[in-house]
Write a structure and sequence with these properties.
Elements: H1 15-21, H2 23-39, H3 45-75, E1 95-99, H4 106-112, E2 118-122, H5 132-140, E3 148-149, E4 162-168, H6 177-190, E5 191-201, H7 206-212, H8 222-231, E6 234-242, E7 246-253
Parallel strand pairs: 1-2, 1-4, 2-3, 4-5
Antiparallel strand pairs: 5-7, 6-7
Helix pairs in contact: 1-3, 2-3
Length: about 260
């Protein structure tokens, strides 16, 4: 008799899912393109040129953001975790994965590091994580069994119990600075001396602004992540770039 095998984890979100999570934004962009092109023939020469320019700019932004999402989420090493060895060369040990409505980090971490202790905490709260895309993503990818609910000011994890904390595309969903500050303070509390926070984010920088346009303002600048980490008593260890659009930071708690 053959032994049943466990079902493989779901495929992490790619450009198809990104479109689904953010369809109102894409629908608005397509409407701007169609509206500008439809209005242009009815306008004077200068307004028509402006309408066509606006439509072309909207079309270019839709194309560049879609291509960037495909490059990062479908083609890069993001979910293979090949970049992680440079940040935690000895492995993550007992680790905490923090999500804010969409957890796609814990399955690949569990596969790459079997036998390590893993805890997943979800901070999803409609009052704090206000983006409609998060609600739509959460409906498609519900929390894994055993996921613990938490809040930025209360992670249900013992003090100094974690070797590594992962926050992958999670912290920027906390739109208020006090919530982010509370979360970083809690992360420091849960880390053992010498433990590491691995923070993965799109920073608001030139590269992301070039491809995502105004959408890049949903991201936080690099200086904000450095401010939060240093304010919580963590120091920078290293950074690595993924697909030229994502930065993985490693912050370390001092070995007291």
């Amino acid at each position: 008799m053959s032994t049943p095998t466990a079902a493989p984890p779901p495929r992490p979100s790619g450009v198809r899912e990104v479109l689904g999570y953010n369809w109102p934004l894409y629908a608005g962009g397509l409407s701007a393109v169609a509206g500008g092109l439809a209005l242009a023939p009815r306008l004077g020469r200068v307004p028509a040129a402006l309408a066509r320019t606006g439509a072309l700019a909207a079309a270019a932004l839709l194309a560049s953001s879609t291509a960037a999402s495909w490059w990062v989420y479908d083609r890069s090493e993001l979910y293979s975790l090949d970049w992680l060895t440079a940040l935690v060369p000895d492995g993550p040990g007992d680790h905490l994965v923090i999500s804010t409505g969409l957890d796609e980090a814990s399955p690949p971490l569990g596969l790459r590091y079997p036998g390590t202790g893993q805890t997943v905490v979800d901070l999803y709260d409609p009052a704090l994580t206000t983006e409609g895309s998060i609600r739509r993503a959460r409906r498609r990818v519900p929390p894994r069994p055993g996921t613990l609910p938490g809040s930025p000011s209360r992670l249900p994890v013992a003090t100094r119990s974690q070797d590594t904390v992962f926050a992958v595309f999670a912290a920027h969903e906390l739109r208020l600075a006090p919530d982010r500050e509370a979360l970083f303070a809690e992360i420091t509390r849960t880390l053992r001396p010498g433990g590491t926070l691995v923070l993965v984010e799109h920073p608001r920088d030139r590269a992301n602004t070039a491809v995502f346009g105004p959408g890049a303002w949903h991201f936080m600048p690099r200086r904000e992540w450095l401010r939060l980490a240093h304010g919580a008593g963590l120091y920078s260890v290293t950074e690595t770039r993924i697909a030229n659009l994502v930065t993985a930071f490693a912050f370390r708690r001092s070995a007291e």
